[in-house]
């Protein structure tokens, strides 16, 4: 799985909007703060609007505002909706499985499945609120990634 600029830039926009809850932010400001061209940003924000993550306001003081609560925006869901499957290979994909002539007895498929499951594990457990609160961290002395939330 490779997150393209589409996924990264969409997350940048969601983070910016999430850092200013309830505030309408103009596309020019979003473009400047996320380093994304207005033209590309318009396309991404339209997709995010269709998916229900943001809403827009027209007029001189128009722009975009986060429509959903940051705690309910699941990063794995956002990436899947914008980028497609999380699997690095079609033979390991759950949602877009692609058969391979070498699949039977393949010694690589378990690796691709583990990679898919690990990516899904992290992304599905991460919300926009986790990103806004800097709760994504690598555990000390461990190769795992965790979301630190207060109990």
UniProtKB/TrEMBL annotation:
PROSITE patterns: HTH_RRF2_1 (PS01332), HTH_RRF2_2 (PS51197). NCBIfam families: rrf2_super. One of its GO terms (cellular component) is cytosol. It comes from the Bacteria. Keywords: DNA-binding. Signal peptide: none annotated. GO terms for molecular function: DNA binding; DNA-binding transcription factor activity. InterPro entries: TR_Rrf2-type_CS, Tscrpt_reg_Rrf2, WH-like_DNA-bd_sf, WH_DNA-bd_sf. This is Rrf2 family transcriptional regulator. Pfam families: Rrf2.
């Amino acid at each position: 799985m490779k997150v393209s600029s589409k996924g990264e830039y969409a997350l940048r926009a969601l983070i910016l909007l999430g850092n200013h809850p309830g505030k309408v932010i103009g596309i020019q400001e979003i473009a400047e703060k996320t380093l994304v061209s207005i033209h590309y940003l318009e396309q991404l924000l339209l997709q995010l609007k269709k998916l229900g993550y943001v809403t827009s306001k027209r007029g001189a003081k128009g722009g975009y505002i986060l429509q959903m609560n940051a705690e309910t925006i699941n990063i794995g869901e956002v990436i899947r909706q914008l980028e497609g499957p999380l699997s690095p290979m079609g033979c390991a994909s759950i949602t877009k499985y692609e058969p391979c002539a070498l699949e039977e007895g393949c010694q690589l498929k378990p690796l691709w499945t583990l990679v898919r499951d690990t990516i899904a594990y992290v992304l599905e457990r991460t919300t926009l609120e986790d990103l806004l609160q800097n709760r994504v961290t690598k555990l000390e002395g461990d190769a795992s990634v965790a979301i630190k939330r207060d109990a």
